Amino acid sequence: MSKETKQDIEKKKELFLESPSGFMMPFAAGEGEETEEVEISLGYGEQVHPNTGEKFFHHGVDFVCPHKPLYAIASGTVIGVGQDGTHDKFINVRYGKFDVKYGHIDGHVVNYGSKVNAGQQIAVSGDFLHIGVTFDGEDINPIDFLTVILSNIAQLAAMGIKGHPQLVDFDVPVRTKYEADQEHIIEMMFRFLPQYIAEIQAGTYRMSDRADLQLRNAFSQSVDRNYFFENLPSYGNPLGLSGRSAPLVSKVQDILIGDFLAFMASRHNMYVPTWDEAQKKNLLSLFL
Predict the structure, then answer these.
(1) Within a domain: residue 169?
(2) In terms of DSSP H, where are the helices of 16-173?
């Protein structure tokens, strides 16, 4: 075996990314759906600036995916959160020896130093998304890195192993009282969920005492009914829930969605557009 071949093998070993939580592409259509096809607006390497017409070296790839949830690609750690003149708001996550920068984001939902798992939402993209990748401090083409991630998912699937985490799959449907307005609420969450989480973490917004009591009662009743740990706990189902606990999941979702909508009302005077005045007043009486 030649020296060059040995070096190639060692390099491949270094590039291998271990991830106990599996792998996930950074943007996805949602649980049970295929990964979205995302258009590239600006590639890696020497490019022509779309505004000035000047040639420059682009240390990343820009994607057309406006206001989409962004997911952790593998097991990693948030090593940077901030804003600069080149990429506006950004978040940096370290996956092994790979550092991935997500630029031009609307906001982040995890903080500096946080440990993340594959499939965990970390941010929301802005009008577009910049992804830059370095390996051991050196630039690499993000497309090459994402191709490796996609290959890992495909290889795990071929072996009968799910390449990305799955949430608990109940035998019965889990519904909330907000089903009719789901599309509008999801659009609001795409834009404002990072702010909601950030304010909760900073203590500038807190759940109402009434909503907090409802949440505590829901979990207390669930303990009495032995809802927890009927199945082996996993990343996607840490409480070991089964289909029997669907009423608990529905109740908790009702409370948390209601609290988010109360936040939107108090911070932005924004409501679900199909609601009448009675529905708005009812929300404020329950959650504020």
Answers:
(1) no
(2) 142-158
